[in-house]
Design brief:
single chain; alpha+beta; Cytochrome p450; 3-stranded mixed beta sheet
């Protein structure tokens, strides 16, 4: 079969490439490229040319990496340097050991202590921040601040639960896409300064809150890694954990409170599962143990649908050698040093895969376990955590965190939505994670 060259998307500007087109309307830009060029095309974001894969089967082949032609490690090392400020030397010397440490401590069956600490901290923050009387809020801002404070205190220390720390996180989070895309940092001085302050907080934090941190820091010390690089690594994990948990929890809570009957089903499932918990939190509530969390199948489906509907991820790899990459649309030549990136947001709305794809169907994954495209079963259904050997080592921790946050909010709060419309999605974080709302939703809440 003839080896083809990947078609190049026309347009783009010096230095920034298609960054403005993508940043202005990411979904629309990628849809137009897909309509004109098909499943595979090349764009330029910042200084880097990126070969984009849309077909879910092709994205899986990139993950499978049968020819050992693609490296996530080489791609991530540049992100670590450019976005979080770590030196390449520090990354190269410790990356594999750090991933192994996280895989060990964040394995599915090793998360009891993390889960308990998250639940206890979240309950404590809820009681500090709330009252038994109805209070008016903007829903996303309220949940964002609440979840950030609880998650930060649980994962790191109370130092990170401050209002100043939250403001720095928000400023950095709002600009990650542009920094990641290679836009000149001179335009994002406030975001870089906010990131540097987060790094400094990590350098000033002597508290080691869990066994994983202790082992990670021992690894850094053994390899002679300077304190700033250790802090930059901490910042990357800290950002990823907080940003996606906040957004996923928001969308699930919003959809639940738009449909009382569905909320009742999830509440009933949770109450039934909690009957098997024989541990109690600091406030006397049943603990969301691993067996309890495993039984929350309706909540699992709700979370999966939220991730399908609101995730926008560039899963990036760098070609480590010239290769002929076989796709469903032919064999393409990819040169050593080029980026290959799966952009699964487009195929997440293919009607050939999902019935009525633009409708949020909370039970979509409850009723159907397998999905097909072009006659074949899709092997990678949930792209939010990547895939292959470099699949996110914290994926089980993240899913448990989603469940704990949502279940705890349902246990403690009554919400009333003051607006009936579903907010538009804010696309400024496209390619970097789960997309927050663009519109503000007024609500009321009180403790049950």
């Amino acid at each position: 079969m003839m080896i083809k060259h990947i078609p190049v998307v026309s347009g783009g500007l010096p230095l920034i490439g298609h960054m403005l087109d993508f940043g202005k309307d990411p979904d629309g830009f990628m849809q137009r490229c897909y309509a004109q060029y098909g499943d595979t095309f090349k764009i330029r974001l910042g200084k880097e040319a990126m070969n984009i894969l849309i077909n879910p089967h092709d994205i899986h082949e990139m993950y499978a990496n049968k020819q050992r032609a693609f490296s996530a490690t080489k791609s991530n090392r540049l992100i670590s340097q450019h976005v979080f400020g770590s030196s390449l030397d520090a990354y190269d010397r410790t990356v594999h050991a750090q991933i192994d440490i996280m895989r060990k401590h964040l394995a599915k069956n090793n998360l009891h202590d993390y889960n308990l600490k998250m639940q206890n901290t979240l309950e404590a923050v809820i009681f500090q921040e709330s009252s038994a009387h109805w209070q008016d809020i903007e829903l996303y801002s309220f949940l964002s601040r609440l979840i950030y404070k609880a998650g930060s205190a649980a994962l790191v220390s109370d130092t990170f639960a401050s209002d100043d720390s939250y403001r720095d996180f928000k400023v950095f989070d709002d600009n990650v896409f542009y920094i990641l895309g290679g836009a000149p940092k001179v335009f994002f001085r406030k975001a870089i300064a906010a990131r540097n302050r987060i790094n400094q907080r990590f350098q000033q934090t002597s508290q080691v809150s869990n066994a994983m941190q202790l082992e990670r820091y021992h690894c850094f010390e053994e390899n002679g890694i300077r304190a700033y690089d250790v802090a930059a690594n901490d910042t990357s994990i800290f950002w990823a954990a907080n940003s996606n948990t906040i957004v996923v929890a928001y969308w699930v809570i919003l959809h639940l409170y738009r449909d009382p009957s569905v909320r009742g089903l999830l509440q009933e499932e949770m109450n039934t599962a909690l009957q098997d918990s024989h541990e109690y939190s600091a406030t006397g509530k049943p603990v969301l143990t691993l067996p309890v969390l495993e039984k929350l199948k309706k909540m699992d489906s709700f979370i999966d649908e939220a991730l399908r509907h609101y995730s926008s991820i560039f899963s990036r790899r760098i070609a480590v050698k010239d290769t002929a990459f076989e796709t469903r649309n032919g064999i393409y030549h990819i040169e050593e040093g080029e980026y290959v990136a799966g952009f699964s947001r487009i195929c997440s709305f293919f009607p050939e895969i999902y019935e009525d794809p633009y409708t949020f169907q909370w039970d979509r994954y409850l009723n159907q376990k397998s999905f097909y495209y072009q006659g074949d079963k899709i092997k990678s259904m949930q792209f939010a955590f990547g895939g292959g050997q470099n699949i996110c080592p914290g994926r089980w921790f993240s899913r448990n965190e989603f469940k704990i946050v949502i279940a705890t909010l349902l246990q403690f709060f009554d919400f009333q939505l003051m607006e009936s419309h579903l907010p538009e999605v804010n696309l400024t974080r496209s390619g970097t994670g789960t997309l927050p709302p663009k519109d503000k939703i007024k609500a009321r809440y009180k403790l049950k």
